[in-house]
Every structure is written in structure tokens, then in C-alpha cells.
Design brief:
Blueprint lengths: L26 H13 L7 E5 L5 H8 L4 E6 L2 H18 L4 E5 L2 H7 L6 E6 L7 H11 L3 E12 L11 E9 L2 E8 L1
Helix pairs in contact: 2-3, 4-5
Length: 188
């Protein structure tokens, strides 16, 4: 069972997506990831975007740890419903609407985002079948929506190639955790 690890809603369980279409981020990886993000001082008061959200666990962890706003983007109907349940729970615990859910394809969501919409922290945990060219295209659409000092975290299989970064973004670190690899990027 997945849970919120720390912050105002820490310890609360998260509803998981039924079936095998999503890969939840393990608590070990999530704990290491958020420890790193806290050391980079990018969570507190951040505008967070969680693309390919699955259950929404990464974005919701950010909300629990002090993010100003969190947007979960998930196209799959079952996963989107789970995101909404988890968002409702954390919003109730926090006493304010911090987390919102968008049932949308990631590409469409980014195309509709206005030019003045900027995020400070972005998570991308795309499904394994998404090829590198499609992931690079999404990163290209995301790049104009990153605020100065933003951090982008891409989670993939440790067997996956490094994402193809657009010119407006550069990778500054990566870390492998068993079968999971995280890449950290920022605006160039």
C-alpha cells in the first residue's frame, strides 16, 4: 500500500490504481527523491505539475510537504478517478484545495496551458511503452512553462536511455534505485 511519507498529511494511505497499467513509485524511491528535492529547496510554496500521474502520489507528496498548488494530469479513466480520490483526501487533510486533477492526455494539457502558466517542480513518470521520441516531444512542450529555478524529474526504468532534452532544458543529475532511474533537469 502506498502512503504519503511526510508533511502535513504524512502517514495517510493513498488509493492505488487497480490493475497493472501503472507503476507506482516505491516508498524508498519517493523518500530519496523528496529528500533530494528538499535539499534543493524547490518544494515549499512550489507550483507542482505531475504528468502521467497514475495515483498522483508524487504530486500529493509535494502538497503534503508544502507546495502551493499541485496539478495531476492523467488520461486513463481509472487512474484519473484514483487521482481524484487521493486529491480529495489530501485537500481535506490540508483544509484547502491544493491539488486539482485534469483528465487529459499530457500533450493536449501542455498545448492548452497558457503562455503565462509556469511551474516550479514537474514530475514525469511516463508509461514504459512511451518511446524516447514521444518523451522528448513532451519535454519540448513543457520547457516554455518552467519558471526560473524549476526542477524537472523524469522517472523511467533503469534500462531506459536518458531522455532527449530540448535545448531549453539541461540535465544536472541522475540517480539509479534498483530498477528505477531518476533524471533531474532545469531550464538551460
Amino acid at each position: 500500500m502506498s502512503r504519503i511519507i511526510a508533511g502535513a498529511a504524512g502517514g495517510n494511505p493513498l488509493t492505488s490504481v487497480p490493475g497493472t497499467a501503472t507503476r507506482p513509485t516505491t516508498d524508498r524511491v519517493k523518500e530519496a527523491l523528496f529528500s533530494r528535492l528538499e535539499s534543493l529547496a524547490v518544494i515549499d510554496d512550489a507550483r507542482v505539475l505531475d504528468l502521467y500521474a497514475g495515483s498522483g502520489s508524487l504530486g500529493i507528496e509535494g502538497a503534503s510537504r508544502g507546495a502551493r498548488s499541485v496539478e495531476l494530469v492523467e488520461f486513463d479513466a481509472r487512474a484519473s478517478d484514483v487521482c481524484q480520490r487521493n486529491a480529495d483526501m489530501v485537500n481535506q487533510v490540508l483544509g484547502r484545495k491544493t491539488v486539482s486533477v485534469h483528465r487529459s492526455k499530457v500533450e493536449s494539457f501542455l498545448e492548452r496551458a497558457g503562455g503565462d502558466v509556469l511551474w516550479d517542480l514537474v514530475f514525469l513518470d511516463p508509461p514504459y511503452p512511451l518511446d524516447e521520441a514521444a518523451l522528448s516531444a513532451v519535454l519540448g512542450k513543457l520547457a516554455p512553462h518552467l519558471d526560473e529555478g524549476a526542477v524537472v524529474v523524469v522517472e523511467r526504468s533503469s534500462r531506459s536511455a536518458e531522455p532527449g532534452w530540448p535545448e531549453a532544458m539541461e540535465c544536472f543529475s541522475d540517480k539509479k534505485y534498483g530498477e528505477t532511474k531518476l533524471w533531474f533537469a532545469e531550464p538551460a
